[in-house]
Structure formats: C-alpha cells, structure tokens
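$ run holo --ligand "2-acetamido-2-deoxy-beta-D-glucopyranose" --emit tokens
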Amino acid sequence: MSIIVYILFSPSLIVFIAAETSSITLSQSLSYGKTLVSPSGIFELGFCNLGNPNKIYLGIWYKNIPLQNIVWVANGGNPIKDSFSILKLDSSGNLVLTHNNTVVWSTSSPEKAQNPVAELLDSGNLVIRDENEAKEDTYLWQSFDYPSNTMLSGMKVGWDIKRNLSTCLIAWKSDNDPTQGDLSWGITLHPYPDIYMMKGTKKYHRFGPWNGLRFSGMPLMKPNNPIYHYEFVSNQEVVYYRWSVKQTSSISKVVLNQTTLERQRYVWSGKSWILYEVMPEDNCDHYGVCGANTYCTTSALPICQCLKGFKPKTPEKWNSMDWSEGCIRKHPLSCQDKLNDGFVLVDGLKVPDTKDTFVNETIDLKQCRTKCLNNCSCMAYTNSNISGAGSGCVMWFGDLYDIKLYPVPENGQSLYIRLPASEIESIRHKKSKIIFITSVAATLGVVLAIYFVYKRNIADKPKKNENIERQLEDLDVPLFHLLTITTATNNFSLNNKIGQGGFGPVYKGKLVDGREIAVKRLSSSSGQGITEFTTEVKLIAKLQHRNLVRLLGCCFRGQEKLLVYEYMVNGSLDTFIFDKVKSKLLDWPQRFHIIFGIARGLLYLHQDSQLRIIHRDLKASNVLLDAKLNPKISDFGMARAFGGDQIEGNTNRVVGTYGYMAPEYAVDGLFSIKSDVFSFGILLLEIICGNKNRALCHRNQTLNLVGYAWTLWKEKNALQLIDSSIKDLCAIPEALRCIHVSLLCLQQYPEDRPTMTSVIQMLGSEMELVEPKEPGFFPRRISDEEKFSSNLNHKTSNDELTITSLTGR
Ligand SMILES: *[C@@H]1O[C@H](CO)[C@@H](O)[C@H](O)[C@H]1NC(C)=O
Ligand SMILES: *[C@@H]1O[C@H](CO)[C@@H](O)[C@H](O)[C@H]1NC(C)=O
Ligand SMILES: *[C@@H]1O[C@H](CO)[C@@H](O)[C@H](O)[C@H]1NC(C)=O
Ligand SMILES: *[C@@H]1O[C@H](CO)[C@@H](O)[C@H](O)[C@H]1NC(C)=O
Ligand SMILES: *[C@@H]1O[C@H](CO)[C@@H](O)[C@H](O)[C@H]1NC(C)=O
Ligand SMILES: *[C@@H]1O[C@H](CO)[C@@H](O)[C@H](O)[C@H]1NC(C)=O
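-- output --
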C-alpha cells in the first residue's frame, strides 16, 4: 500500500519511470519539472527555487541529499518568475536558457561543434562536448569553469592562462539568494602565485603561496590527510589548485559563505553537513591587520609585533593599538656595500604577501642569498619549495606584508629577512648574552627555589595580589571598571547569579551598550582560587577559536577579582543532555554538530594554539552553548600550558572531575593530551547516551557508563546505548560510529588512544576504525571507585564537583 502511495505522490519517481537521462542533444530540451540525472544518480540538474516559488533557477544539486544540496546555479542574478522556461542546446553547441522567448542565460563556447551533446557527469560537472570528438576531457564548455559558491571534489580553481580564463568561487548574497555577493576566493598570478579571499576589491584573507606541501597559511593541510588529496599545478599554461576525496563514497564540499565571511569545508555524514574546516580561523588570518614589516601572532599581546630590526613607524598610534602604519627599519640598509648587510632567519611563519616576488626554481638557498644581496630592494628570501630538503628560490621586494607567526613552529616555514650588519651583530650579541644569563640563572634558580620553598609558608597575601596585578597588566587584557560590572550585574544580585564555577559564583550581566556578559567572581575568602584565576586569564586571553569561550576582559580591584566573558544564552551542555525534557531539543544532527565542535576546540588547544594546552577538566558542564547551539569549551582554571614538544606532565596536585579523569591521571597524577582525549571519550558517550558517567546508564547494572558501554559493545549491542530521544533511524550508523570512536578514546593506555587530529578524521570520514581495547576504569564498580577516591581524602559529596586539591581543606 505504502509503495503505491509513494509512486503516486513522488514526482521524482515519475521522472525516473519516464526514462532518466544524463544528457541532452540538439533535438532535445529540458523544461520545468524535468531533470537530468548523472549516470550513477549522484547529481541532478533542473529547475529549482530556494524557498521563493517566484524565483526559479537552473541549478545542479545532490540528488540524494535533502539539505543545502544546491552546488551550482546558472542564472543566479537573473531568476525566472514562473515555470515557462526551457533549456536547449542550440546548433552552435551552446546551452541556452529561455523564458517567454527571451534569453535568460547562455554558454559561450568559442568553438563550433558538429554534433554537440550536453551531459551531467557524476562529479557534478555539466559539460558540452562534441560527440564526433573521440578524446575524453576536451569540453567545449564546462560548469566547473564557472563555479558558483561551491567547490566540489576534482574541480580546479585558478587560471587557464592560454584562454585568459580565471576560475574562482563567488559567495551567494545569502543562503536563499544566489545573486553574487562581494566575497570571492581564487588564485592571483604573482610570480609566486598566491591565493586570496577578496571582499570586494580588498584582500580579506590570504591562504599564502603553495610551498610544495601546502598553502603557506594552511597548516592543517597535511600531505598525508587520509580523506583528501591536494594538488597544485603551476606552469606556463595553467595555474590551479584542486582537492579530491580519496574514497569515492565520501561527500565533501567547500563553500564560500557571505554571511559568516568564511570559506567552509563541509563533510556529509549521511544525515547532516559537518563543518570540517573554517578559514579565516583567528584574528591574525585577517589580511594585513598589522601593517608593513610586522608579524601577527595569537601568542603575544598585542597580536602585532615589529619584525626584528624594525620599530613602529608612529609609536603613539602603535601603542593605542592602531597598527595600520606598520614598522620601519631602526637602521638603514647599507646596500651599496653588500658586505654590510646580512639576514636573520625566522622560523614558523606564513610567508609574506607575494605581490612583489621573483622565483627561480633551479637555484639553491646559497645562490638565492647572493642574488638577494645584489638587489637593494630585495628584503627577504627563502626556498620556493619546502618539500624534502627544500629547493628553489623566492625573493621579496619592498615592504613585507601579512606575515603570521605560528605558535607551533612546524606549522610555519622559515624566512631569511635582510638586516644591516650592525643589527645582525646586536642580535648575535644578545644571543650569547642570553646563553650566559641562562647558565647564571640556572645556578641562581636552584638557590632561589630553595629559598622560596622555605619562605613560602610565610608569604603574605597582599604581595601575592600585587604580583597578580602586575601579571595582568603585562597581559594587556582589557580591563573593566568595577563600577561597569556592578552596574551590569545589578550589584551582583542573586537574581543575576547563573551558576557556581570552580572558584566562585557566575553572574549574568548587561553592559550599557546592550552586550550580554557572564561575570566570574572569585570568592574573596578563597585564597585557593588565585592560581586558577591567573592561569585562566593568562591562558584564555591568548586563545581565539570559535569553539572556545571568549574572555572580554577582567577586573581586579582590591578584593574583587572578576573575569568577564561573552554570555552564552543556552547555558551549559549538561543542562540539555541530562534533562529529560530539554534533551529532546537536541536531535542527532545537533548533537553531532556539538561533538564535532568540541573536538575542534580541543584540537586547537592541543595542537594549533601557541601554547599546547591541556584542559584537564573537560566535562559537560564546561561546554557552553551559544544562541545557535554552537559548543564553546570554557573553564580554563585547571588548564596547563606546554612549550614546544612537551606533551606530558606530572603533578602532585590532581585536579579535575571524577568520572572524567583518565586512570593514569587520577592514580599517578600523570597528565597528557591523552588524558583530555579520555575525558572527551566520556563526554562523547554522555552526549549519545544522555546519562552521566557516574550515574547508572541502566538500572540493573552496577557498572558505570564506560563499563556499561564496553559490555554492550562486546555483546555487539551498542545500539542500546543511544538516547531514546534520538529516535531517527538514519542517525544510528553515525551514532554507532561515535560510540566506536569514544571507546577508542577511553582505552586504558594513553598511547593506544588517538590524538584529537585522528578523532576529527575518524568522525569526519568513513575510514575503517580499529577495534578498541579494554577501557580504563572499566572493571571497577561505582562503589569501588568511591572508596578509592575517599581514600585519597577527596571531597566527593557530588559527582560533578571539581576536585581541586589532593590535600583537601
Ligand atoms: C511574454 O512576452 C510578451 C512580449 O514580450 C509579453 O507581451 C507577455 O506578457 C510575456 N508573457 C509573460 C507570461 O511574461
Ligand atoms: C583577460 O581578460 C580580462 C577580463 O576578463 C581582460 O581585461 C584582459 O585584457 C584579458 N587579457 C588578455 C591578455 O587578453
Ligand atoms: C554559512 O554559514 C552559516 C553558519 O555556519 C550556515 O548556517 C549557512 O547555511 C552557511 N551558508 C552557506 C551558503 O553555506
Ligand atoms: C635561474 O637561475 C639560473 C642560474 O642563475 C639561470 O641560469 C636561469 O636562467 C634562472 N631562471 C629564471 C627563470 O630566471
Ligand atoms: C631588483 O629587483 C627589482 C624587482 O625585480 C627590479 O625591478 C630591479 O631592477 C632590480 N634591481 C637590480 C639592481 O637588479
Ligand atoms: C618540490 O620538491 C619535491 C621534493 O624535491 C618534489 O618532489 C616536487 O616535485 C617539488 N614541487 C614542485 C612544485 O616543484
């Protein structure tokens, strides 16, 4: 019965019965309601509207994806009002879209075809070719040359120099208006080609030139990416970039988004589009924020710094955070006497804008240096190809623009910057001085350490406060007046209190300009929280990511220590997932969006932020949700930062929350990025199951959630874990995959657990997953666990309580 109804009411099926075709020839035309379908049924071409039936477009869309599926429109700026329109292939081999006998849109192939045919391919490319032409891939015209806002697997963006044809993405005005917006993304043909996102005629974001491995400004683009293959080709005839998916079953698209001013990469999960990658990502990704001869880094405050040997052009402006005039040399180059100039090597950079460059691929670095020294306007040089041992030569002339310094040096590349000999000398001098000072300091340090350990118990509080005040000043975190905050929060009225954080109450407030804020107030009585307070300010002030909560500023006045954050309308994640009513508001696509966002935030902390941060207290109540239910990790009071390659630490002060702590951390105080991965695993299970790890997932079980999940997994019964409010059957394969990933994160030995990079790759693709080994903590039953914690003298009156000290109070 239901099958008959389906046939009667499904128009697409009727088209199917009336012979589905992927091409039209001279004698044929396509009218409203008819479609072309690519040979394997992946893409469909026809007439569509974007919610307004009076605006009809000729478009191409994913046939089997119901949401945001349109990847190309022909007549974006020129919609048709009604359905009386026809697409025809004319005798010259051009596609012509007419409405009431007037031409709305047409192609213009330069060559005339004997026997033209227009075909929709499985790649989503609409092509016109000559049937008499035997060669494949010689198209008279193809839609891939004229993309809309979407880049598909296999599509080239760049230049066909012979044809003087540039292919770039152009954003739609909005989600339901495919008129061209002012945001575009494509390659500019400098000697060293660069890739820009333009807003109108202004550079908005620069990906950087291709350096043989990746775009200089795209550290996440790794050659061994399991999902994508990246390709860049540059020669006399063509310069282009394209990416393709390694597994044909993966569906992924890149969209230029006018609303958010971003280039977004999405992956289709089978149920929803997952945002896999976003550019620009932080403030330093905005083109030229810092002016000439500077570098931008999120690891220093202010984010703009002069290059070595340079000073602010206008100090007054520079000091008031107007960096537009940039920096100038402290001492002029001697140039004429080339022996008197030299170069300083700076590592970890996105190389400068390549507008004025020169490339020679056949010479090495030494010759490059000589060549640069011989030209007075050459300011910097480096290898044009950093793959392998490095090769080729690229030189920059004139002022250097839009350099970014990556906190993790291997994310960037080296650049040799020209300086006068006197400057080089002083840098060398400083270096040897530093070495001397370090060795003296090391000796002194031991002595001082002994002294302070001895002194510590009698250290007085006011001194500590002064110290914090000084540290905060050094940070340049915006300071709020106490009066501003008391006004905003109604003098910390109880009505404004929205929660209790690790070291004090949290209040909601509203600034005079209307912005809503959340204010964390360090309880004045608590001496214990001061370290956490400064840690939090120090760390979060330097962190900028869409999945981390933003610190707007702080206030430090006498006994009051306040942190001011952007306000998150939807509160914390735990109030959703552990609540019978509210959990129904989170359907599976939303939960997956949250999971993915947390993963990206954590990845940023672990790898991409300058500090390599271990959060140490990741849990549902520390994930906040904004108005659009985007997750933001908060509460960095327990976090630890690491320099360079250090990924593990040891502490005699175990902090964190029971139920989320990795075994090696809770037992031995050994923490690493892998203990955060463990906590992420717990969080993942909780989001899927809708129960706290410390609570029982199933009444008859004496196991905690991890134990329960593992038991069900071994019985091949993991389906039972999925929260009953996720009723959608289509979500199940994805949810099961998340459970699988979660169990990989929960494995007992840290070395077995994946990194957050792999977690994101596993969640965002259909790659094969290994079988998880037994999780940590599994054999312990709840009662044992409690005994274990009370033995250590912890305050465990409440599962959710954050344990802040081994010694208790
Ligand atoms: C079609 O075009 C003719 C002449 O240009 C015009 O008179 C007529 O109103 C149009 N019909 C529609 C439906 O737009
Ligand atoms: C290339 O095309 C642009 C416009 O698309 C035009 O301004 C320019 O003159 C062309 N260049 C050549 C060499 O034909
Ligand atoms: C732009 O991004 C927003 C937020 O991520 C999303 O809701 C919207 O659908 C995107 N627009 C397009 C055209 O993809
Ligand atoms: C590169 O440098 C070599 C050696 O100086 C020279 O022979 C060659 O012509 C140069 N190539 C280009 C493209 O300038
Ligand atoms: C230095 O390089 C610039 C840019 O390529 C060029 O215009 C200039 O002629 C060169 N000067 C010398 C002395 O070679
Ligand atoms: C860069 O260098 C690598 C290793 O030498 C080489 O395989 C690759 O072809 C080079 N790439 C370009 C664009 O020259």
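-- notes --
The mean pLDDT is 81.
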